[in-house]
């Protein structure tokens, strides 16, 4: 297998031979990069393998995973390809590193959140859980993609009450859709714009540790 993406990998400092570790794959927002996401989950680096996946399309000083026709309207062919390539990357990294396949998490912001939720719906129980920060699920994913059941997938979704990119209404609609698919949804609002507050970070870290049976 090969990787369609450049990426950063952080292995636990005291790596034990023959031990499998939970993993967090981070997916950044449009125009950002894989390193910007590491700070969000760095406090988990002793217990998790953390892999930041860089979008393969340059955008300004950063990157993206797909381009848009307009806000909230992905170019379908590019979006489809990124979903396919990211699923392949999850399997690639699972083979290459000492990853516990039963504890694979995706954590995404904005464009990364959109992809994380889409991958949960297409990969189903191959993922243990996802964290989706300020994103949504494209309508064509809900109606045209071959979806798997996500009853066993844990989901932490959050949204900024004053999000100027994706209005908070979108956060509520996304949470309602996910809650129809699984009871394992935690949805929280924070008094922020299109970003992640310290409170949001604290809550998602505690959620991940609890879901991965580390506390």
Verbal overview:
The chain has 6 helices and 11 strands. Helix 2 (76-96) crosses helix 3. Helices cover 35% and strands 26% of the residues. It is globular, with a radius of gyration of 16 Å. The protein has one domain (7-211): 3-Layer(aba) Sandwich (Rossmann fold). Strands 1-3-2-8-9-10-11 form a 7-stranded mixed sheet, with helices on both faces. The termini are far apart. The chain is of the alpha/beta class and 215 residues long. It has helices at 34-41, 76-96, 111-123, 139-144, 168-181, 198-211, and strands spanning 7-10, 21-27, 49-53, 57-59, 62-64, 68-70, 73-74, 99-109, 129-133, 154-160, 185-190. The mean pLDDT is 96. The longest helix has 21 residues, at 76-96. A hairpin with a 2-residue loop joins strand 6 (68-70) and strand 7 (73-74).
Q: Strands, helices and their partners?
A:
Elements: E1 7-10, E2 21-27, H1 34-41, E3 49-53, E4 57-59, E5 62-64, E6 68-70, E7 73-74, H2 76-96, E8 99-109, H3 111-123, E9 129-133, H4 139-144, E10 154-160, H5 168-181, E11 185-190, H6 198-211
